[in-house]
Amino acid sequence: MPYKLKDRNVLVTGGSRGLGAEISRRFAAEGCNIAINYANNESPAKDLAKEIESSYHVKTLIVKGDCGVMADCRNCIHETIKAFGSIEGIVGNAGWTKFTNFNDLDAMTEEEWDKCYAVNVKGMHALAKEALPTFNKNAEGGFFIITSSIAAKSLGGSSMAYSVTKAAQVHLMKCLAKVCGEKARINAVLPGLLLTDWGNLYGPERIAGLKDAAALKKETELGDCADAYIMLAKNTSITGQNIHVDSGLAIQHL
Ligand SMILES: NC(=O)c1ccc[n+]([C@@H]2O[C@H](COP(=O)([O-])OP(=O)(O)OC[C@H]3O[C@@H](n4cnc5c(N)ncnc54)[C@H](OP(=O)(O)O)[C@@H]3O)[C@@H](O)[C@H]2O)c1
């Protein structure tokens, strides 16, 4: 039986811009109330909340918090439950990198490696841990979908720390799916190049190269990527899996 999304309460971390904003819209279009987390810029979060409420007639909540700070992750879950009464879905979409030379072992400081690990790995653990008691109480459980990256599977991307922590994130996702029990479906989506503010930091030359390297000779379309989250949220038989939505970028490097 597919899981119905209407009237579910979903938290999207890093939900105010880029891929997270598209995911927020897609879940709202399915009838979900959306808690939009952001870290620094309130106005895109406010604009998106207004757009979603008027387009889809669902409730929204804006939650400020740095997903590299465990107390903030826990607070995102608490605030969602306080505002909507429960939580049935989490999209762990916030991520962190610093665009550096992948081959340079000095490219990031120890503090930057720690930040990368905190946002991309530890924060996901904190979100799952905090929501699990509620998922276990929900009649139909809950879902946790992590935004990973093809950098988790290939030896490249914006930085070595990013690639390493996104790989750890996929492993964490599988561990959580194994241990969190029958009420929690936990999966990851691995996008290729997305032309968001983040993806555009690659610059025109690298972007052209990444499009050319993909089997489909294009970037990953945001809408196609967001659709994968909806599919995973509805499917009650998939857990512990990672789905590539990358225009065939990863298969060129396997
Ligand atoms: N772009 C790509 O090519 C690409 C490819 C593969 C995977 N991804 C993954 O996709 C996810 C989203 O990337 P994007 O391209 O959509 O980025 P984006 O356009 O730069 O949007 C980033 C979003 O995350 C929020 N954010 C940033 N740092 C945060 C933190 N520490 N805690 C909570 N929220 C935070 C931002 O809020 P503020 O505006 O308040 O900072 C904003 O809502 C990331 O996990 C990234 O690793 C991206």
TrEMBL record:
Keywords: NADP, Oxidoreductase. Signal peptide: none annotated. Pfam families: adh_short_C2. One of its GO terms (molecular function) is oxidoreductase activity. SUPFAM superfamilies: NAD(P)-binding Rossmann-fold domains. This is Granaticin polyketide synthase ketoacyl reductase 2. Gene3D superfamilies: NAD(P)-binding Rossmann-like Domain. Belongs to the short-chain dehydrogenases/reductases (SDR) family. It comes from the Eukaryota.
